[in-house]
Amino acid sequence: MRVSLALILLFGLSLLLGACGEAATLYPPTPTIPATTPTFTIQVPVPPKPKPAPGWEFRWLQDTSCTLPCYEGITPGKTSAEEAMTLLQQNPLVSAVSIGYFEGDAYGFIAWDWVDAKKRADGSIGTGGYIQYDATKPTRTIYSISPALPQVPLKEVIKRYGYPTHVIAPFSWEDAGRSLYYYLYLIYQPQGLILYNKYYTKEPPINEDISFGKLSIVNPDYISSQQKLYGFPADPSFIVPWEGFKDFRYYCRMTDKGQIVKCDSVLDAYPNGKRK
After folding, report:
1. pLDDT tens-place string over residues 225-257
2. Same-domain pairing of 236 and 171
3. Are 122 and 82 in contact (CB under 8 A)?
4. Which of 5, 22, 126, 185 qualifies as a cystine partner to 111, CB 3.0-4.6 A?
5. pLDDT at 235
6. Are 141 and 163 in contact, with CB atoms under 8 Å apart?
7. Spatial separation of the C-alpha atoms in residues 27 and 150, rounded to whole Å
8. Whole domain around residue 128: which residue ranges?
9. The last residue of a domain, from among 127, 147, 167
10. Alpha-carbon distance 98 to 45, whole Å?
11. Spatial contact of 154 and 186, defined as CB atoms under 8 Å apart
12. Which residue, of 124, 147, 170, is where some domain finishes?
């Protein structure tokens, strides 16, 4: 692990200040990200905080801290990695923060733990979520925020933000082509919000009762770039405008001979996710 000497000294100084008298009540300085981008992971000091009040997990639906695409004071496309670390340090819901970068990647990451979350057995940080930042530019601007939160029914999101603006509904072949996995991403473009689950083994229903256990918040202008983040071809045809509650295949798109087409031919050949 290669970390600049200046960064090590600054990190050590922040720990020292946190252990000295009245200075312990102050938020320690946020480490400066190295000017170059070698592989590194550093835990940022965070002062002790009390357990939050019940219901804190749904602040993002109540605009308690700020309005999407801002999340807990952090806005993709505007907030820098240094600013995000400071905001997380000061956030009453956050108990630990780390920042890292893997050499060869275009994006670095910031990870955090929630105050009342169970710690990982290996001691690593990230039970609260991850932030990606652009490590190729001096500004190191935040690219996406993916907080770890409880499942939320779509109807609760609809109450606050209305209906989605777009849908991404792809599939992948699994088990040597004998079965399919289905994926569903509901997009709220003005808010930069993307709701999704890991995958489905059957065509998922698209109705207000469906729940999502994962969400990402991106710069609303980067919605098309989100396809690259999830491994989809960089073609806007995969993002289908919302046309109401339809079945999965209505929104499903795939690539066939270089063209973006509907998935019916494949879905018909795999009823219930299994090849006929």
Report:
1. 554 544 444 466 778 999 999 999 999 988 887
2. yes
3. no
4. 126
5. 60
6. no
7. 29
8. 5-147
9. 147
10. 9
11. yes
12. 147
Residue 139 sits in the same domain as residue 159: no
Domain count, the chain: 2
How far is the C-alpha of 105 from the C-alpha of 101, rounded, in Å? 8
Give the SS3 label for residue 156.
Answer: helix
Q: What's the rounded Cα separation, in Å, for the pair 210 and 92?
A: 31
Better-predicted residue by pLDDT, 234 or 54: 54
**Whether residue 140 is found in the same domain as residue 156:** no
Question: Which H or E element spans position 48?
Answer: none
Structure tokens at 102: 């893997």
Structure tokens at 263: 């998935």
Residue range 125-155, pLDDT digits in tens: 888 999 998 888 888 899 899 999 999 999 9
Q: Are residues 10 and 132 in the same domain?
A: yes
Does residue 226 contact residue 234 with C-beta atoms inside 8 Å? Answer: no
Please measure the distance between the N-terminal and C-terminal CA atoms of the chain and give it in whole angstroms. Answer: 51
Same-domain pairing of 184 and 116: no
